[in-house]
Amino acid sequence: MIGLRDFSIKNKLVLMQVLTCVLVLGLCFAAFVITDINGYKGRKVASTISFAQVIGSNSISAIQFLDNEAAEKTLFDLQEVETDVVNASIVDSRGKIFAAYTRPNQTTHVFKPPFRNRHWFDDQYLYVYKNIVDQQGQIFGTVCLQVELSQLEAIKKQKFEIAFVLLFVGIALAFLIAYLNQRYISAPILNLVNVMKQIRENSDYSRHVDVIGKDEISILSSEFNNLMDEVANSHRKKDEFIGIASHELKTPLTSVKLYLDALSKMKHEPLVHTFILKSKDGVKKLHNLILDLLDVSKIESGQLQLNHKDLSIDDLIDECIQDAQMNIVNHTILREGTKCDKIIHGDRDRLEQVLINLLSNAAKYSPNGTSIAVKTVTSDNDITVSVTDSGIGIAGSEHKKIFGRFYRAKDSNSVISGFGLGLYICSQIIKRHKGKIGVDSQEGKGSTFYFTLPLNGEQKLS
């Protein structure tokens, strides 16, 4: 069931203003109709009492002389003067009917005591009792009238029709005004949300929200911009630190690597030789990490340069498979399908870095003894290179996130080392080749990483 909290701010604002308008107009129209009906009833009571008073004044002589016929004639003349009277009676001072009148084709109504000055309404009629009093104040009887409220229903219908039309017009105008007005509130909020989504997806902390006006939303947007400036400044300082630290570490690490290479060529006891080899492996991993950090620093600072040349994609793939197979001894790397025999325009070293990284990841996350397949598919405008493994797979919710900087899949094996830089660097290299990179994967069913490069030869240095 959809609740009010599930509505957007835009719809809530429109709904609140329309409901407020309906409530206010409804109350105004109800007061208008009720006032008009009560006014009609008041006028009807006043005219009927005056009419009963006239009848009483004309009937005093008839009551004094017990002239019933004269009294009935007075009542009979009602149909020519007041057509709304249905039943009328003159009751003497003892409470007995002295004269009576019933409009033709109507049911006779019997008036009941007490016979004193009063009036009341029921669904269709007004009842008026008016005492017959002479100038000295002596009461001779009572005039009783049953009056049909024939105009009341017509008045109600007319007023309700007018109220309905005005209410409909009011709701339409309220909706139009509310729709135009909500844009001043919801549009800046939605704009802020869109900018936040773009920052989350692209990690572009330089994005700002347009600040218009001085209301609370403008203050919120301004503070958001200030926060993004601080975040961007923090990231810039972090990138500067990574770049400086990587450069400072690279020089002594190169010296250590050279000394270890020299030691490995000397004769040592087997245990010492093993220690030297393990040290070399550790230095190699640290060296690769420093290279990745330097690449990240270049990417973030816009200093990653590409050396574009024409190259054979088949030769590049074959060489990468041969180089990777020398280091990946527990998996077999296979070239599937036919060769594409295509020439592309790109940076050979950087594309080799991408393919080697994908092959290394495929081996890292796949069981020993399984194979890794490399396949190419061409179209008129581009070529797609894919690397398929039989590994642990990646959840669908992680497919876009894993190409982010320093991001590792939540369900990846914590024993497997890594800083979440490889795929980020690959995505940036492919992006600067005007290509696309992605993954097709399900948990427990392996993964296929692929990248697509254009064949039109219109790429430019990024």
Automatic annotation (TrEMBL):
In the record, what terms sit under GO molecular function? phosphorelay sensor kinase activity
One Pfam entry name: CHASE8
Its signal peptide is none
Per UniProt, residues of the Histidine kinase domain are 244-457
Q: Which chain regions cross the lipid bilayer?
A: 14-34, 160-180
What cellular-component terms does GO give this entry?
Answer: membrane
Supply the name of the protein: histidine kinase
